[in-house]
């Protein structure tokens, strides 16, 4: 008992993934305190309609940005030492090409939004946000090299610094200029901060004597990772587009608020879980992977389940006090969407395991099924009410992601059970 207490009191003796989660959790806790203040100011300064406009622009931006996630960084993480220089040289070149292409796509989407659908303000926002891609390529290799070395504390600080700067700029802008632009512009204004911190996180320069790895070196992860990330974007941002199209801009504003206030904290933990566990699982040997997966599952649930319960049950009490009476109608949606954190955590756990087992296409198939079920449940629910849409979204995720994440807990305990190719 005493030895267990000593281990708990000395984080340096924790498993690598636990230290990584501690780093991201600490950074997230600080960020959430600042973000809570920002949401409080924003909720009292702008209307649900303005928030709905910003939500539409940011959802389209996040959806397009996923196109930059083509498995290049994951290939850096899985590279062996002998090929690392060639992989990094090739990755840097590919990052520039990919980001330039995605920037062009977003400009095209902004034109379609403005001239085809008559969403002039949304189109202008997307055009301005496309400038973010000018900052990304120069710091991405450094970020993934730090993740490869499991320096999660350093990468967590980069994310926290950018998010805190985003919140502070949002507050300043919304006080000066209460509008949807006050929520959107900080995404661009904080990009230089991210770049400077990313380059300081890991000192890397191109090995000029080494020939860059070709595209074929990235082909194994590329299509599968892109497919999975597109599905994640459809799941996390497509829902807002559907709510806006089917129920209107005011309903979208309520849904967007409920999603961020109810699922924002736990969704950040889920994203951190995915970032931390993939490098950790990659370094684990085949026999250790099952054990590490069980430990990560237990730790993740021990953190997320109480947090979800607290958010869902206490929402009627803290929403009016913290955010104001304007957002009382969003309380039931907040409580319902908070429950979706459990299947999302399951998806992050099983996704990291499948990538570490070099079975990214199995992850893609699973996420395709879960995403289709979630969005179908949401669309069917909108025929009744916004609350039914929230229930349908969560149920669709739960039906597929929770059983998939629990299956390895039982099958991995029997060493005589053969592992299927691309199994769950």
Question: Care to describe what's here?
Answer:
With 424 residues, the chain is mostly helical. It folds into two domains: 10-219, no CATH class; 248-415, no CATH class. The chain has 19 helices and no strands. The longest helix has 38 residues, at 286-323. The radius of gyration is 21 Å and the shape is globular.
How many domains? The number is 2
Mean pLDDT: 83
**Residues in helix, %:** over 70%
Low-pLDDT parts are 1-10, 414-424
> Quick one: how many beta strands?
0
Number of helices: 19
Radius of gyration (Å): 21 Å
Measured by DSSP, the beta-strand proportion falls in: under 5%
First-last Cα distance: 35 Å
Order of helices and strands: HHHHHHHHHHHHHHHHHHH
Query: Could you describe the largest sheet, including whether it forms a barrel?
Result: none
What is the structural class? mainly alpha
Shape: globular
